[in-house]
Design a protein that fits this description.
Layout lengths: L1 H25 L16 E4 L2 E3 L4 E6 L8 E5 L4 E3 L3 E4 L11 E13 L5 E13 L4 E4 L4 E3 L4 E6 L8 E5 L2 E4 L2 E4 L5 E8 L8 E11 L5 E6 L2 E2 L5 E2 L5 E7 L2 H6 L5 E12 L6 E7 L5 E3 L12 E12 L5 E3 L8 E6 L1
Parallel strand pairs: 2-8, 10-16, 19-26
Antiparallel strand pairs: 1-3, 3-6, 4-7, 5-6, 7-8, 9-11, 11-14, 12-13, 12-15, 15-16, 17-18, 17-20, 20-23, 21-22, 21-24, 24-25, 24-26
Length: 339
């Protein structure tokens, strides 16, 4: 009796669970072509854009089941780093005249199937390489002062920790800081990557600067310890003038070695009464800018007019060179009344 009950119980359970078992086996693939790979679509993640000289790097993923090994290989300039990473040097990817380009790359994943066969799956991608932005900071924003000691700092975002070589005015310097004193209307600094593994330094680009003249100074005139202006009286018995230059304050604070001025001589005219002006001569100024006219005015009468025009006005720069200042005649000419 008990055996019949057990047999009946078995038949009932078989009737209940057999459809479920049949459905499970119908969806389970055990053919010889089955792979031990959970996903055969490789995934590559990496930089979309790199600057010239900055290595391109990417990660490649392929999910493999049952701890089966996978190997990553690369072709061309691409290098495989371990089994999950790609790297490519970009130093020579841009030719002269190219600012940017799209670079394609290819590699291969190798993995083992359950039957021992080795399968290969290609993996590919692309990235953009461009010339880097060159950033310069100076004492005078984006312009340089002519024949002055301009100090520049050159930076290349993306290559902050790399060694640069800077070429300018026939000179070459490694580093990020240079000092140059341009004489033309424009100045150019060529920037190279100096720590490249290549035999030649990698040309990154150039930075151009406009070159401008420094701001003109003001000229002050004093007589016997007092400031005098055009049209003021000049005592005949104390006919001495002291000329001094007041540099632009901002320019002087930033370029103290380039903000020194002097005038070497002055041409003097005397007009007596209604007569035409007579040239008394051109006279040298002392080293402190002093002009003494007591002898020249001994025959002058009160009310006569004296005109003084400065000549040889120069700026002394950091190298000690005397650079002529382009001043119009009116800005360096003064008129006084003899008293």
């Amino acid at each position: 009796m008990m055996d019949r009950i057990k047999d009946l119980r078995y038949q009932i359970m078989l009737a209940l669970y057999m459809p479920i078992l049949l459905y499970a086996f119908s969806t389970f693939d055990l053919s010889e072509e089955s792979y031990a790979v959970q996903s055969v679509d490789p995934v590559v993640t990496g930089q979309q854009t790199v600057v010239l000289g900055q290595p391109f790097q990417a990660k490649a993923f392929l999910s493999v089941g049952r701890e089966q090994g996978q190997q990553l290989s690369a072709s061309g300039d691409l290098q495989a780093v371990g089994d999950t990473a790609f790297q490519m040097q970009t130093n020579e990817l841009l030719s002269e005249g190219e600012d940017e380009k799209t670079v394609s790359y290819d590699g291969t994943f190798r993995f083992q199937q359950v039957d021992g066969e080795v399968s290969r799956i290609p993996v590919s991608g692309q990235f953009r390489v461009r010339r880097p932005e060159i950033v310069a900071t100076s004492e005078n924003a984006q312009s340089l002062y002519r024949r002055c000691l301009n100090r520049l700092r050159i930076r290349v975002p993306g290559l902050e920790n790399r060694t640069l070589r800077l070429e300018y005015g026939g000179q070459s310097t490694e580093g990020q800081t240079i000092a140059l004193s341009p004489g033309g209307k424009q100045s150019t600094v060529d920037v190279y990557l100096a720590d490249s593994t290549q035999s030649d330094d990698v040309y990154l680009g150039q930075k151009q600067f406009s070159v401008i003249s420094p701001p003109r100074p003001d000229i002050n005139v004093r007589n016997a310890g007092r400031d005098i202006q055009n049209g003021d009286n000049l005592p005949k018995r104390r006919a001495s003038l002291n000329f001094s230059f007041k540099p632009d304050e901002e320019f002087r604070s930033r370029f103290p070695q380039d903000a020194r001025y002097r005038a070497s001589r002055a041409t003097v005219f005397l007009r007596q009464g209604l007569a035409a002006s007579e040239k008394l001569g051109t006279f040298d100024l002392s080293s402190d800018g002093r002009l003494v006219l007591t002898r020249q005015l001994r025959n002058a009468e009160p009310g006569d007019q004296i005109t003084v025009r400065l000549e040889g006005v120069v700026r002394i720069n950091h190298a000690g060179a005397a650079i002529p200042l382009s001043l119009n005649e009116a800005s360096r000419t003064y008129g006084f009344i003899v008293s």
